[in-house]
Amino acid sequence: MKELALGLFILTYVLLLAFPVKRWLIALFSAIVFVVIGILPFSELPFSIDFNVLMMIGGTMGIVALFIESKMPVLMADYILDRTPNVMWAMVSLALFAGIISAFVDNVATVIMVAPVALNIALKLKINPIPSIIAIAVSSNLQGAATLVGDTTSILLGGYANMNFMDFFFMEGKPSIFWAVELGAVVSTFILLYIFRKEKQEVHLEEMQKVDDYFPTFLLLGMIGLLIAASFIQIDFALTNGLICISLLLIGLVRDSIVRKDISVVRSTILEIDYQTLILLASLFVIIAGINQVGIVSDISKIFIQVAGDNTFIIYTLIVWASVILSAFIDNIPYVATMLPVVASISASLGIDPTLLYFGLLTGATLGGNLSPIGASANIAGLGILRKAGYNPTTADFMKIGVPFTFAAVISSYIFIWLIWA
Known about the structure:
The protein has one domain (2-421). By secondary structure, the protein is mainly α. Helix 4 packs antiparallel against helix 14 (275-293), helix 7 runs parallel beside helix 19 and helix 17 (332-350) packs antiparallel against helix 18. The two termini are 37 Å apart. A hairpin with a 2-residue loop joins strand 1 (170-171) and strand 2. It has helices at residues 2-18, 23-36, 45-48, 51-69, 72-81, 87-102, 107-125, 130-143, 152-160, 177-195, 215-233, 240-260, 264-272, 275-293, 296-308, 312-327, 332-350, 355-367, 377-388, 395-421; strands at residues 170-171, 174-175. The chain is built from 20 helices and two strands. A two-stranded antiparallel sheet has the order 1-2. It is globular, with a radius of gyration of 21 Å.
């Protein structure tokens, strides 16, 4: 059974890489096969899927859709631009702003919000918009690991390691991964300042974006506030965070339908939720539970230990940089979902706190996507906006920014996490 499970798992991964558009269908079919042929007993199926994670992601996606529709992110960007002296600071500020938003909003949604602002500035000033859009994309990817709701991989870690919202800031009395990410953001900002050093044209903002509906903003802030409150209260209920996100989304939808007297708004918001990603994740939970059931996860962890011995530093280094390299070419969602139980098994074998390796995994997998144009969905979205506007960014264009940005952020975060958590 173990050989069959391993073969099916490898085949699934190969197909996920070969047909990225159909990932959800491939994972769903594979999960069904895992259950039908008995790799994962049917009785274990409900317990293998983390419904709290799925509800958090779905609810957050819906709330973010309402937030984007309100035009508040554009108004916030306008305020930033109105206070910058020249193009260099405008572009760097927009990238930093995208990063801050991305700590609480999906990376792709952040790029879709902020990139058009940078594109409009570039068109008005008749400058090349390619570097600024790429900077926004990589900055969004960086900050996704900063908070529990910043990225799907963060939510996966929170669910697997039972981490709450505040654990991403301080955990066991120590600075947590948020501070490692912010250190990486500070260091990588100098890279951006160097890249845009010649852009000294003045920026003139003709008019501010108008926002008529502030309720979605309060809804998003309310979600963050309630997740923080739940962290302090320590409610012993597995679906707490998921119910918070779903409940606030329902409040937003009901309120919209009443205020606008038009149910089509509700329908469009519901359709904005990425159901394919939710199906992909649910299926991956089943697949990973199956390979764990037959002992493959334990075998993978033993391979890591054989390569690195029992040296914690080497294993930590291997996990971080292997994650960086692999995430430059494969989607980090299935990768992180697969590696979390492996990291837990390695930690148990060595008798060490798994937090060090968890943070190393999340750092490498999240930031590694910035090494290549196809390494993260936000990169693909940013480049898509450029192509739609008539520009043709090359791989070299992307890597001129992505590579130095990634190494600056990863090295600083890698050192910080080791010094604090080793």
